[in-house]
């Protein structure tokens, strides 16, 4: 099980996540959808422990290593290719 209770996150003085309460059971699949800047990536990074937060996050012992959580970033990466003539 993964549950969040009143989870919040701020970037300087700007609230990014405000009092998120949500839970899921093992074996369920979820997608987090929303417009740009809605806090989707921030939410995932908070769950993964990559960003600080206020509130409570409870994780079942079976997913404490996060081997059951996947994060696929769709951010564009700059790739440089050198070409020799």
Q: How does this model look, in words?
A:
The chain is mainly β and 85 residues long. The chain is built from one helix and three strands. The protein has one domain (2-63). A three-stranded antiparallel β-sheet has the order 2-1-3, covered by helices on one side. A hairpin with a 2-residue loop joins strand 1 and strand 2 (14-24). The longest helix is centred in the middle third of the chain and has 8 residues, at 40-47. The termini are far apart. The mean pLDDT is 80.
Shape field: extended
**Count of the domains:** 1
User: Please, what is the average pLDDT?
Assistant: 80
Total E-strand runs: 3
Largest sheet: spatial strand order: 2-1-3
| Multimer state | single chain
What is the N-to-C succession of helices and strands? EEHE
Rounded radius of gyration (Å)? 16 Å
Report, as a whole number of angstroms, the end-to-end distance.
57 Å
Helices, by number, come to 1
Strand percent estimate = 25-35%
Characterize this entry briefly.
The protein has 85 residues and is mainly β. 9% of the residues lie in helices and 32% in strands. The protein is extended.
What are the main properties of this structure?
extended, 3-stranded antiparallel beta sheet, 32% strand, mainly beta, 1 helix, 85 residues
């Amino acid at each position: 099980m993964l549950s969040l209770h009143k989870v919040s996150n701020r970037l300087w003085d700007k609230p990014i996540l405000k009092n998120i309460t949500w839970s899921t059971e093992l074996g369920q699949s979820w997608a987090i959808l929303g417009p740009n800047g809605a806090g989707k990536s921030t939410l995932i990074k908070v769950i993964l422990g990559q960003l600080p937060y206020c509130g409570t996050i409870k994780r079942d012992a079976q997913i404490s290593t996060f081997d059951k959580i996947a994060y696929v970033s769709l951010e564009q990466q700059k790739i440089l290719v050198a070409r020799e003539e």
